[in-house]
Amino acid sequence: MRIAIVAKQLGSGYSDAIRKGGEQASAELGKVQMIFTGPSTPTAEGQIEVLNTLIAQQVNAIAVAANDPDALVPTLKRAMQRGIKVISFDSAVSPEGRIVHLAPSSDALVGETCLQLAQAAAPGGKGKIAILSASATATNQNAWIAAMQSALPRHPDLQLVATVYGDDLSDKSYREALALLKRFPDLAVIVAPTSIGIVAAAKAIEDEHLTGKVFVTGLGLPSELLGHINAGSVKSFALWNPIDLGYSAVTLATHLARGAKTGPGATVPLGRIGSVTFDQAGTGPMSKPFIFDGANTAEFAKIF
User: Fold this and answer.
1) Domain enclosing residue 184, as ranges
2) How far apart are the C-alpha atoms of 207 and 204, rounded to whole Å?
3) Residue 226 within a domain
4) 99 and 112, same structural domain?
5) Distance CA 22, CA 36 (A)
């Protein structure tokens, strides 16, 4: 059984952690070969190239974290027409391009958690916040931003003043963070629900000598944020365990390739993670986000 995992981009700590979890699942499931691949830059065009190669190789299943929800659909439809089981994970493909989507958490929980962390970071628990996202087409980012906007009325002391996009590129995210700091000199918190953006924003704050005045929170990797926790630009942040996400994606894709039926209302086992139940849109959450801070980041930084 050959199960392909298509990451948004190769070479990041986040994708490396997903790969590690996928390797654990393939070893546990038995007779499963995981093919871990992805483009060198986070583009839909790069993923389409990779997907065409996998279709030609006639893999049994593909799990993809989409750089664009719609651009991949024609290619993934072709994969399914050839008998390949297709799921998306982390960042969703539009429903017509996959069987189900494995979300790392629920959008509502991620949005609420990000605002709670922003309020905890803001001096006095109030002030202006800005969002530094990945690309404008990233489905997971847009869903989390929408959830944050929906949750804002429950946080009246926070004022969202801008949303900007760093395209999950370190240099562009850094420049966007600098621009926010100059545009809003009274900014309290930058919320970056992206592992690349949160690091870039923390570096920008430290380089501008604004540590202790402006803070960063959002979603990130402990190994990449430990230094910024120690420096004081980040008080706390959140993430699901990407090792578990890779493990769950391979497990789910393998079950489908082996004939498991799934769809709205179905529950599928995920090994050590438990199980996932899919809603009417064919989306199922893996788990709640986990909060990292000065007390536990060093411990988890040794893992991912």
Assistant:
1) 107-239
2) 5
3) yes
4) no
5) 8
Say yes or no: 212 and 118 in one domain: yes
Residue 26 lies in a domain: yes
Instruction: Taking the CA atoms of 287, 89, 93 and 60 in sequence, report the sign of the dihedral they define.
Output: negative
- In a shared domain, residues 113 and 210: yes
- Which pTM value belongs to this model? 0.81
Is 51 part of a structural domain of the chain? yes
CA distance 14 to 37: 13
Give the per-residue pLDDT at 44. Answer: 97
Residues 99, 182: one domain?
A: no
Closest CA to 178 of 138, 147, 212, 205: 205
- Return d(Cα 208, Cα 198) in angstroms, integer: 15
Q: What is the pLDDT of residue 287?
A: 82
One domain for residues 130 and 196:
yes
Q: Look at residue 288 in the predicted model and tell me its pLDDT.
A: 82
pLDDT for res 13: 85
Low-confidence ranges of the chain (pLDDT < 70): none
**Each residue's pLDDT tens digit, 167-197:** 999 999 999 999 999 999 999 999 999 999 9
pLDDT at residue number 26 = 98
Amino acid at 209: H
Half-sphere exposure of 62 (CA within 13 A, CB side): 35
User: What is the Cα–Cα distance from 276 to 273, expressed in whole angstroms?
Assistant: 9
Pick the closest to residue 168 from 198, 205, 142 (CA basis): 198
Domain co-membership, 61 together with 172:
no
pLDDT tens digit sequence for 16-40? 999 999 999 999 999 999 999 999 9
Query: Is 86 inside any structural domain?
Result: yes
- Whole-angstrom Cα distance, residue 181 to residue 285? 34
